[in-house]
Design a protein that fits this description.
Blueprint: E1 4-7, H1 14-25, E2 28-31, H2 32-39, H3 45-56, H4 62-73, E3 82-85, H5 91-104, E4 110-114, H6 118-127, E5 128-130, E6 137-139, H7 168-182, H8 184-192, E7 195-198, H9 203-214
Parallel strand pairs: 1-3, 1-4, 2-3, 4-7
Antiparallel strand pairs: 5-6
Helix pairs in contact: 6-7
The protein binds adenosine-5'-diphosphate.
């Protein structure tokens, strides 16, 4: 199975689609946001630095992000293919990633750009609830995305949490960073001939389009 890279503004559905793909195609799901959230709990200077970046909505340094990524890519579950959710986020990261792929003898695969309007992204952020155990995403302010039981994950029964960076102020910083640093990646991957664009908000329709791309 081909590796997949998602490029998208915050709350465009990268995480949701990654989980659907993981379940159906047995792909490893690598979310750099999740790797960094875990590393931010370490009682160290590095943990504190990461925590501050996450709280403020700023990107973490390439060195730290890439170190965590390489460690994750070496795990066995990546052999069957993997999804990168949140990486690369800058053209510099994309260029470094191309060297890493050569070193690890892995393929780039396909790059999928999920585009959604800023207003919809904001609405999703404000009510977003995530399952810390299986990664499933719900929304307590959007009827079709509410969990069946309030605050409980439909999939694994774990209590749902709100991310500390899911508020309007941090969202605006994250969105701005996305426009400035991540959007230029679209041209980079277009030039490599590996970019596919999806302009749809409905979760099932997005998933169908992704399946068409990876078939
Ligand atoms: P979202 O896409 O909704 O912003 P993520 O979980 O992908 O959520 O990212 C959360 C935060 O983690 C980002 O705001 C940033 O601080 C950090 N982060 C994630 N991926 C990267 C990356 N590739 N490079 C630097 N920082 C990152």
């Amino acid at each position: 199975m081909k590796n997949i890279i998602f490029i998208a503004p915050p709350a465009a559905g990268k995480g949701t689609q990654s989980i659907l793909l993981r379940e159906k195609y047995n792909l490893a799901h690598i979310s750099t946001g999740d790797l960094l959230r875990e590393a931010s709990l370490e009682d160290s200077e590095r943990g504190q630095y990461i925590l501050n970046c996450l709280k403020e909505g700023n990107l973490v340094s390439d060195d730290i992000t890439i170190e965590l990524l390489i460690e994750r890519l070496s795990k066995d579950d990546c052999k069957n293919g993997y999804i990168l959710d949140g990486f690369p986020r800058t053209v510099e990261q994309a260029i470094q990633y191309e060297t890493i792929l050569k070193d690890l003898n892995k393929e780039l695969g396909v790059v999928i750009f999920l585009d959604i309007p800023k207003e919809i992204a904001l609405k999703r952020i404000v009510g977003r609830q995530v399952c810390p155990s299986c990664g499933a995403v719900f929304n307590d302010q959007i009827d079709i995305s509410k969990p069946k039981i309030q605050n409980i994950c439909d999939i694994c029964g774990h209590e749902l949490q709100k991310r500390k960076d899911d508020n309007e102020t941090t969202f605006n910083i994250r969105f701005e960073t996305y426009m400035k640093k991540t959007e230029p990646l679209i041209k980079h991957y277009e030039e490599l001939g590996v970019l596919y664009k999806i302009n749809e908000v409905d979760k099932e329709k997005v998933f169908k389009q992704i399946e068409e791309i990876i078939k």
